Amino acid sequence: MQIEVKVPVLPESVTEATLLSWNKQPGAAVQRDEILIEVETDKVVLEVVAEADGVLSEVRQQDGATVGSGEVIAILDTDIKASDGSDEQPAAPEAESRQPTSAPSSTDDSLSPAVRRLVTEHGLDPADISASGKGGRLTKGDVLAHLDRSANSGASEQSVPAASSGAAPTGASARLEERVPMTRIRQRIAERLVSAQQTAAILTTFNEVDMQPVMDLRARYRDAFEKEHGVRLGFMSFFIKAAVEALKRFPLVNASIDGSDIVYHAYYDIGVAVSSPRGLVVPILRDADQLSFAAIEQRIGEFGQRAQDNKINLEELQGGTFSISNGGIFGSMLSTPILNPPQSAILGMHNIVERPVALHGDVVIRPVMYLALSYDHRIIDGREAVTFLVTIKQLLEDPARLLLQV
Q1: Catalytic residue among 125, 309, 377, 398
Q2: 155-163 long-range contacts, Cβ below 8 Å, gap at least 24?
Q3: What's the pTM value of the predicted model, to 2 decimals?
């Protein structure tokens, strides 16, 4: 039976997607639930898996193709059996393999689809490539090895000093460029950032927070917390708890603009920016006001791991009333975060550095973090933004306030 391999149903707001890289080539055996290819949208990466055991008999859309929801991209045949699951064609009879063979041309039918594609893409002549396959056939590994040798040879030639050849290096050899298309996710990030800059009146206010009280509290209860909850006590849970309490006191910071209306949100869905191999994503921590410190740390840990594995679901990226970005993990001292529309504010965390500060008339060394709050000045006044950030500062410098809500 032949089964159509289709693009998964795309979210309502997504009209098209891009095929990344086939994990199997035509003629290869596949098993049920094995990932055949990943499909990248402008928000998430979706997996296309085999519905049954069989052979991938046909690939209709190649790597990098633009496809739509439900489009057929390959055919899976459950009635035939692959010879060896590799890209190469069946071996020639033994008698033929003893005969001298000439290198195949790029149009030779003996080339497997994978080999033919590589040869065509790189403009290679198969006659120039040493073949190691059965019957003198060219394998995919032969082509890749040839490309590696060519690249290394080119790099060696460029590294030779100009004096050895008696001529200065030409512009082409000395100034290399590579053009790589943006991924859909990166395109979407770019569009949203530019849109935020063009549509919102973004201002940023700054403050600093003495992190010693939070660090002392973590040091005191770190082991007991991890033993009880099975997760480490980090800084992010303190910042989320402080942000939620401040949002309760300043509802406009938790609001958004819809046309000529201001929409007040009576819930607190906090976006937490995490990095992934394909760019920054902001999964949403729903109803953060109802979560414990342990639950917050567990979910943030899960977000981080799944972002690295490209397993964040689209639903987890939608919505949100306020965002927090932690540039401190990369060593950032100070930055101005950009809004995540339609949200009206975002808090930027930075690295913790020991600095001399005045405390009760004395100069002491304290671990200090600079905080930044970017906000939409169309609905949030400067006084409100500054007071909101001061509230977060006060809550963090006296963590008992988070429990007493004072």
Answers
A1: 377
A2: none
A3: 0.65
